[in-house]
Amino acid sequence: MLTPDEPGLAAGITSFRVKNKGSRDDNNALVVALREKHNVLTVRRDGVAKGQCVRVSPALYTTEEEIDRFVTALAAETGTG
To answer: How many domains, the chain?
Structure first.
């Protein structure tokens, strides 16, 4: 997970990288799989530091079930679940 350590810089937007899957193509494939197979919207972006990453933006109205769906989908697509 990519986020500043300073408490005042925390935000709902979270970016992450999957170990050994850091290329633009890898991240694009993950974004497509999460959207098409799991109905989870994320975006690939160039990270502020060290390049490519995937961004997810939960909000105040995001339900616990939606967060669970994201976690389950990410685990399924990365083979960590």
So the answer is: 1
